[in-house]
Write a structure and sequence with these properties.
The complex is a heterodimer of chains A (about 500) and B (about 775). Chain A is of the alpha+beta class. Chain A is built from 17 helices and 20 strands. Chain A has helices spanning about 30-35, 105, 115-120, 130-145, 150-155, 170-175, 190-200, 220-230, 240-245, 285-295, 300-305, 310-315, 315-320, 330-335, 430-440, 445-460, 470-490; strands spanning about 10-15, 15-20, 55-65, 80-85, 100, 210, 215, 235, 255-260, 270, 275-280, 340-345, 345-350, 355-360, 360-365, 370-375, 385-390, 400-410, 415-420, 430. In chain A, helix 3 (about 115-120) packs across helix 6. In chain B, strands 3-5-1-12-9-10-11-20 form an 8-stranded mixed beta sheet. In chain B, strands 7-15-14-13-8 form a 5-stranded mixed beta sheet, with helices on both faces. Chain B contains 19 helices and 29 strands. Chain B has 4 domains: about 25-30 and about 460-595, Aldehyde Oxidoreductase, domain 4 (2-Layer Sandwich); about 50-135 and about 190-265, Aldehyde Oxidoreductase, domain 4; about 135-180 and about 280-390, Aldehyde Oxidoreductase, domain 4 (2-Layer Sandwich), CATH 3.30.365.10; about 405-455 and about 610-784, 2-Layer Sandwich (Aldehyde Oxidoreductase, domain 4). Chain B has about 775 residues and is of the alpha+beta class. In chain B, helix 6 packs across helix 7 (about 245-260) and helix 10 crosses helix 11. In chain B, strand 10, helix 6 (about 210-220) and strand 11 (about 230) form a beta-alpha-beta unit. Classes of the chains: A alpha+beta (about 500), B alpha+beta (about 775). At the A-B interface, helix 2, helix 3, helix 4, helix 5 and helix 6 of A face helix 1, helix 3, helix 13, strand 16 and strand 27 of B.
Amino acid sequence: MSGTPANAIRFLLDGDVVEVADVAPTTTVLEWLREHRHRTGTKEGCAEGDCGACTVVLGEVAHEIDGGRGAAVTDGGERMRYRAINACIRFLPTIDGKELVTVESLIDGDALHPVQQAMVDCHASQCGFCTPGFVMSLFALYQQQDNTNRAHVVDALAGNLCRCTGYRPIIDAGCAMANYPAPQRWSRAQGQDVAHIDALHALRRERALEIPGFVAPRNLDELAQTLRAQPDALLLAGGTDVGLWVTKHLRELPTLVYLGEVRELQNVETRADGVLRIGAAVPLTDAWSAIVARVPALTELAQRFASPPVRNSGTLVGNIANGSPIGDAMPALIALGATVELRRGDATRGLPLEALYLDYMKKDLARDEFVVAVDVPTPSAATHVACYKLSKRIDQDISAVCAAFAVEVENERIVAARLAFGGMAAIPARAQHAEAALIGHAFDIASFDLAAQSLGDDFKPLSDMRASAAYRLQGAQNLLRRFHREHATRQALRTYSAEVSP
Amino acid sequence: MNDLPAQRDVGARIGEPVRHESAHLHVSGRAMYLDDIELPPSTLHAAFGISRVAHARIKCIDLSDVLAIPGVVAVATAQDVPGENNYGGIVHDDPIFAEGLVQYAGQPLFAVAATSMTVARKAALKAKIEYEELPAILEIRSAIAAGSFVIPSQLLARGRARESLADAAHRLQGTMTVGGQDHFYLEGQIAIALPGEDGTLHVHASTQHPTEVQNVIAHALALPAHAIVVQCRRMGGGFGGKESQPALIAAAACVLARKTNRPIKLRLERDADMLITGKRHGFIADYDVGFDDTGRITAFAVMLASNCGYSADLSGPVNDRALCHIDNAYYIENIEILNHRCKTHTVSNTAFRGFGGPQGMLAIEQAIDDIARTLQLDPLTVRRRNYYGAAPRDVTPYGQYVEDNILERLTDDLEKTSRYHARRAEIVRWNAANSVIKRGIAFTPVKFGISFNATVFNQAGALVHIYTDGSVLLNHGGTEMGQGLYTKVAQVVAHEFGLPLSAVRTSATDTSKVPNTSATAASSGADLNGKAAQAACQTLRARLIEHACKTHDVEPHDVHFVDGAVQIGRERMTFAQLVQSAYQARIPLSATGFYATPKIHWDRSRLNGRPFFYFAYGVAVSEVAVDTLTGETQLTRVDILHDVGESLNPAIDRGQIEGGFLQGVGWLTNEELWWNAKGELKTHAPSTYKIPSVRDWPRHANVRILDEAPNPEDTIHRSKAVGEPPLMLAISTLHAIRDAIAACGAAGAIPDLAAPATPESVLRAISSLLPSGEGARRADEGKA
């Protein structure tokens, strides 16, 4: 088909509007860059969003209230927001209307960007293959954060693997980059932001992007109608799972219905009853930031959930709707008593999150039904909340066990308990026996020991490459003990809370 | 010409922390890797079809459905290999395409060439393979029981181990278990084959061993070596994984290129790479050690066995190096090591940084730790009591004298600067007061032999051109995989001519420029190629000096190369002017250089000789915290003092030390290869195989290069090899975890900790020290 703007993908690259027509909708950003454009600075290391060699940055117009660095630069309260994503699993049509920044974009003539110069000066590249990805993750941080410290750098780089350096010089480069003179080409000054915002506004569409095999409805009614008309279509949000179906499983996908342009799904809002409503297209980054603001106990989970580039693309509702038994969002949300709103045609219904999951990858969800939002209540002051994740690596690992507990205590007795686990069964699930062992009992170790023993009645976990059944059960049991102890002593009981000899 | 005085005038570039020669290219995305090369439009993309079973007779390979896929141009099987269907370098037991028999899940059966990589990958899945499945041996103990070995077992013995064990004041037995490790170079295996005229092939390969790739292709295609050119500018990481394995990839590409007469690119995507290619050998060691009251070892008997996978590959030399490093830093008078090289129906394991050395060291380090715990002594005390020392405690089990021992100096320094003893005392206090989070600390030494065990490989060549504008083009047989070899050798060359580094460019390693090269391996890259390049430069320098002496009527010692200029008597001219003048006088401005490591010899059958030119040393102290409820561990601090001789480039050397250390930590903690009962590897992507990430670098890290420690041997500028030795500093981390686990048990308890020390492995070791078992775990605790 011909490349008219209505059915060509359009985005900004190096200040120019790029129009791409005649590509399969499952063409990844990486594939387009490398194979179509022969722009090969961005690398493929794993094609599953786990190594970060393919990291690029997407620029979008954000609003002042969205959080992040800097004030608005336009009267409309807008500014540019730059975030790292994995190009290897992001489909090209989903960057329509955005600005794409790759490692080639940073250099200004022969002058390296401060991020690049700091990497050179700190000896932060050896084989260099992962380096463009690190540069782009640091570039996103550079754009977001004025004074970067070690913690920012480590968080920002959690999705980038380097096999050569041991990371020390890369951390140094990240900490040093802010000390270099501001670059000309990527000045964070207002004027440049305005130019980028104007350029992106010029890409706004009157009608939805429609290319063969890809539909991007603009509002909820359109979405519901589209799904009714094409019940075999596949919903696509961040694509951090669906992308792998293409790159790893080599699957042919049906028509993709993209949620990223549906207006009503973009929002995080606080309802009158204090419940946080997170729309289906809200990226994990924003969803977790809103949840953690209300439930600080989930800070570590939010930080360890996948990686920054995955969180910037993937959505919380996508994680929920996918419903993997080892997804990390479900235990925490189930423990908090989250509900989901489902829509099919014009009909909507609500469901406690745990009721969505029927059996392994089987959900109480009709073919043409979709999750509109997840509603997350804020726990009461009397509720002890914790979420623990057991995995081989701290960052960006899939849990062997993920456990979340919300235990309400009144006069030292447990009056309510929601214990939810991932990795222990074919679905994310509550531990009914263990909950029963707690409710009505004292908040003491005896109760938790009993609950721990009851877990054996709740779960018969699997053995696989992440852990054996025996470890999963023992670990889950001991997490209950850790929970008791941490709340009894009001102290974190973790390896990082151990002192380090000076 | 080697009687000329050494170039001393400009020493500035040697020992300077010069940046990596490609750093500016790396950070800007302009460094070209194989996958970035723009290819002719006629290029086809290839993919392997692989076995899905571990061990079977192949009854039938039907590829008709593969060929029917639109876009598929050709397939190749064993029948399409005109010459020898083998890429095994030592024992010829590695078929390029399996023929009749498959011996691991993941073994290549055929390759497809198609118009795109995706088409090729999809088509490869359409093959119809009929197998007659055979019983598969999947791990070491089963292989030993079945007598399944890739090459015969070896015995290394000295003294009277059995008798001394019987007579020992104390004696204990134990088992060391360590898993393998995937290289996880960020750039997967890749080769490009470009057919040329008259049946020749130009091959781009991501390889540490271009010459072997050349030879394997030549044999496979039944062509003379001169018909094949193999080139490699840089790899996106190697770590040993691109020593023998790239020959498979390149040979398959060449078979298809020959068949189609079109350029072929064969790139393994990550899962294919991890399923098809070899890894570090997992090992077990059953040991029996005798010792006196002070902890000094009187006898050591070990059954050391490795999982070699289905074929020999480099398993012979890997195991030889394990044998030659089981002593590590310790003198063991009476020793007996029986070494089995086990054949299993898993991928054939191969070279990986350390090359068996680390696995050998783990055995003795664990035995020493056991001794210390049994005697309730500080493990460092026991280690020191067993260090190599003065004669007669200075000879290794394989007969080499330890002449350059600096262990005492290193240990004294780090013991003090790391405050080892004070910290241990503090940790003991912490552990007494804390029941859930235990801390541990360990100090371990490294002594690593430098040179290929096989003497023949310790040679190198270089080619240096000086152009008439005074710029210098360097080529040598070493390959660049990120380790900074090109930078170091260019520094050597710039130094010889007194030139700025910018005057020297290194061109891609190329079998048509420097022939018959050894693998860039065994940490020897800078040692060998630095010396070879220096020799070439000395030849050229001698010619230029001779010319200058003629034109200026001075003596050789009146000619100095300094700061891009040449001082000839009282006259100074630019280097380019002298070169131009030499050109006018028809002086040859190109030279080769050659180097063969002196002093070394090795009797492979008797496992005796002086295999190593020298030893590189290092010491490390790791401190960890262990969660005894979950088995989670955290490396909280590391102190390292490492010996690189006189560093050629301290920035690069530090990079090797830190990177090697963390890679070793990954091997011993997070990185777990996991096969299911059918022999399928289920950890074949970064989603399931966890190499260290940025948060795993400890916040408190003190890494130092030992100052003023020139190599006593005449190496290039008295430097020492640095590629592999630092990996073994990570043994300190494993032993710190062991130390923390031991704090869960009674005094004298010996943890049974298998590596990698995943949370599961750690929790298992903790549980085995606790009397009550898992269910009643710590029921009495937390009543705070």
